[in-house]
Amino acid sequence: MRFSPAGDPGTPDARSATRYLVWLAGRHPLLFGGAIALGVTWMVAQALMPAAIGRAVDAGLAHRDPDALVRWGLVLLGLGVVQAVTGILRHRCAAHNWLGAAYRTVQVTVDATNRLGAALPRRVAAGEVVSIGTADIEHIGSAVDITARGTGSLVAIATVSVILLTASVPLGLVVVLGVPLLMALVALLIRPLHRQQAAYRESTGELTARAGDIVSGLRVLRGVGGEPVLGARYREQSQALRADGLRVARVESLIQAAQILLPGVFVVLVTWLGARFALRGEISAGQLVSFYGYTAFLVSPLRNLTEAADKLTRGHVAARRVVRLLRLAPEFTDPARPVAVPEGPGELVDVRSGLVLRPGRLTALAATAPEDAAEIADRLGRYADGDVTLHGVPLRDVALATVRERILVADNDAQLFSGALRTELDPHDRGDRRAVEAALVAASATDIVEALPGGLDGPVAERGREFSGGQRQRLRLARALVADPETLILVEPTSAVDAHTEARVADRLAAARRGRTTLVCTTSPLVLGRAEHVVFVEDGKVVAEGRHDELLVAEPRYRAAVSREEDR
């Protein structure tokens, strides 16, 4: 089941964040409801203990009745057993609810990022997603977890209020009126806390995104001397985050103080009033003991309620961030009535540029501007909107899953993930070891595997940071070849390797993709010279086609573009 908040798909409102928390709680209704029922039983058992002690004092000790003392002692023992058992079970249910809410949030977040696909980096900062997966899931889990203790505390306070009203109307009214007053005082701190936490959460996401950008571009920054400038900006933003954190801490410290001070004052007041009533003979000694027990007990549910207000506020702030991500719609969705595409290779045509990819051929696309080639590749892979047809069928009318299955676009923005190298090269486990090894040979990447401890079963660090830029590029090419799609589009697959390696890759790529449709976007003469067909693009339009040597002679603009590549 996927959460889809109702309303406008823009900025989420408070209601949608609340609905998201309710949706999480409803994912496991038995455990969530069981935790609340156990929490109520657990707190009420504690609330009844002072009454049992008071009855033991009045009926057993004051009247010197051993049987009554034993009877009420057994009642007290029974309440203790109920409290212990329900407390253990409540905690287990609460822990399950916490984990369920936290990691369900991870699942829906990952699902949302998958739906956004290539549009994710343009729509959401990396720091935002990281913050959801680290800080926000903890707050959301705690918000769902606290409901059991919070509900139990409310029922326990109501139970104590009824008992006190029955024994003494003035003391009962003190509790009935005092508890809402205490909660109102705490509520005065909740709104500024909500505002400060939202600002702090926003600053955290921005700083995390900046840190990721700096780390990913550290080599370039050092090369151009930009490290001190970016470092200074990071320190400035970090200090701003620190200031936001201090503002949150000030409000939180007031709430923490209120959790101790206000219940303490309340306990003192009820105890003082009960002692005065006992001295005037309006209540018995056992009732005085009970009243003192009630006031001592009330500290726990009152603190639980203030803690619940704090955690629900934090969870609400975090839920709004999650809902904002979930509301982002992907740039491309499946058509209402997808059209089937004939099986087998067919012509892939980009109407805007005039490019025609004929099936079973290795085609190279050389463009005077690299961004023109990238835009054409995005349109062919349905990552950008355009008039593109496959077998004469517009890609707009084809299900996205079908497009992704039959057309693969591999560019240098693709990432390597942590895990075993073989899993990284064949994440869907579609090919056998022989296919993986053949792809490594074609990508001239066997030396990388040989140098890696464990070979294909060796671990790859996050983003493949132990590899050089050229090694990562060759591994990405090998991964694309293992996938073996019907149509493979490669964008500058050899831009980061040396000339000797590039020549080997160019020679082997044609053999590896023989009989399959392949487009290589490049201006490298080594690759262009081995292509079966070359298409030259200028200003986003196809202006010449033919073999590499033919275009060198017949098209001066092509010759100029290729010569620039040779001069590098």
UniProtKB/TrEMBL annotation:
UniProt key word Coiled coil: no
Alphabetized GO MF terms: ABC-type oligopeptide transporter activity; ATP binding; ATP hydrolysis activity
Gene3D superfamilies recorded: ABC transporter type 1, transmembrane domain, P-loop containing nucleotide triphosphate hydrolases
Domain ABC transporter span(s) in chain numbering: 260-564
Its membrane topology: Multi-pass membrane protein
Domain of life: Bacteria
Transmembrane domains' residue ranges: 29-49, 69-89, 146-165, 171-190, 260-279
Coiled-coil residues: none
All residue ranges annotated as the ABC transmembrane type-1 domain in the record: 34-314
This protein's UniProt keywords: Membrane, Transmembrane, Transmembrane helix
Keyword Metal-binding: no
GO cellular component, one term: plasma membrane
Cellular localization per UniProt: Cell membrane
Protein name: ABC-type multidrug transport system, ATPase and permease component
Provenance organism: Micromonospora chaiyaphumensis
